[in-house]
Amino acid sequence: MMKEVRETTLPIVKMAKENEEFRHVIWTGDNTQLVLMAIPAGGEIGGEVHQGHDQLLYFVEGEGEATIGETKVSVQAGDVSIVPSGVFHNFRNTGSVMLKLYTTYCPPEHAPGTEHETKDQADADE
Predict the structure, then answer these.
(1) Is 2 exposed, middle or buried (0-12, 13-18, 19+ CB in 10 A)?
(2) How far apart are the C-alpha atoms of 61 and 4, rounded to whole Å?
(3) How far, in Å, CA of 103 to CA of 105, rounded?
(4) pLDDT recorded at residue 113
(5) What pLDDT does 1 receive?
(6) Whole-number CA gyration radius for the chain
(7) How far apart are CA 91 and CA 99, in angstroms?
(8) Which domains does the chain have, with CATH numbers?
(9) Which of 33, 72, 85, 102 falls between 20 and 30 A from 8, CA-CA?
(10) pTM of the predicted model, to two decimals?
């Protein structure tokens, strides 16, 4: 398990590819938060709406399906999904390996240093 970092330059793609936790908050500022995520094969983030928080998700490994509002699209390494505040969204892993990504929340969504090894832990914490 990593702690929240205070560096200002990070090897984020490498960190995301090495991450095995469902959610790991690695940096939190006053207006933005950086989080690593790893979604197991067949898993999903879970449908949700963030009021007052924009979210960008940057995919670095695996394949999935993004549902943002009424739109469903495939996602893969190199893609970014943009979720405006107040819009329903969900991301599913449709591949056979972990779907790995990093995401930013503006403003922060989770407590600094939050770590959830699994989605079940994340759900229980929220």
Answers:
(1) middle
(2) 22
(3) 7
(4) 62
(5) 47
(6) 13
(7) 10
(8) 12-125 (2.60.120.10)
(9) 85
(10) 0.83
